[in-house]
Amino acid sequence: MHRSPELVSSNEGYRLWASTYDTTRSPLHLLEEHVLSRWVQDFRRGVALDVGCGTGRLMRWLRARGFESVVGVDRSHEMLQVAVDTDCVVVNGDAIRLPIASHSVDVACSSFTLNHVRDLQLAAAEMARCVRTGGTIYVAEYHPIATEHNWTRSFKSDDQTVSIHLFPHRTEDYIEAFQSVGFSLVRMAEPKVGLELLAINDPRVPAFVDRFAGVPLILMMMFQCAKT
After folding, report:
1. What pTM was estimated for this model as a whole?
2. Measured distance CA(10)–CA(12) in Å, rounded
3. Tell me, what CATH number does 103's domain have?
4. Per residue in 131-178, pLDDT tens?
5. Does the residue 186 lie in any domain?
6. If you ran DSSP here, which 8-state letter would residue 191 be given?
7. Which end of the chain is less crowded, N or C, counting CB atoms within 10 A of the terminal residue's CB?
8. How do strand 89-92 and strand 6-8 relate by DSSP bridges?
């Protein structure tokens, strides 16, 4: 008998998912990294902050590309227990109350995290507070169009499909939130699902590509702080 996905909070979802989160390669991460590999050339390779670092996937990616140090913040203790094995500093904390000193990082990143935050304005203000003058904020999220194609943040737990609750922010919500704290949008990308994903050695990928081919599932934005 088919069972409907169980909808849970982000806290509960990542508690359940933490032990198996890194066992499969997400097609969306490959899409994101393909674009980010070009954007990162414009980042100052000093200190990077990863807001909602989870098990450390983006932290490892940034360290491999020459950042002096990377600090990760996440509110899931279970996810951080996995992330401690990275060559980075990890801290338990919330996106709307970051335990990071003001003006202490060159780049603040948030990858698939802000959809878990109800108040974008608070999260944007906290990320902006942490960034030095002339620094950069990078954000990647599920594209608003993805929800129209029934995309969910889901995984299997004990043979039950579990979906994590997301807040459906619009593209203009992100842009307005960061502009209101002094950051201008300098780049935006909406990468679409394509055949390049077939390079991933995962039996789920062909069906994923067939279902979402040509659909922009990710919204990527780079914001720059005014130099004053």
Report:
1. 0.91
2. 5
3. 3.40.50.150
4. 999 999 999 999 998 877 777 788 888 888 898 989 989 999 999 999
5. yes
6. P
7. N
8. unpaired
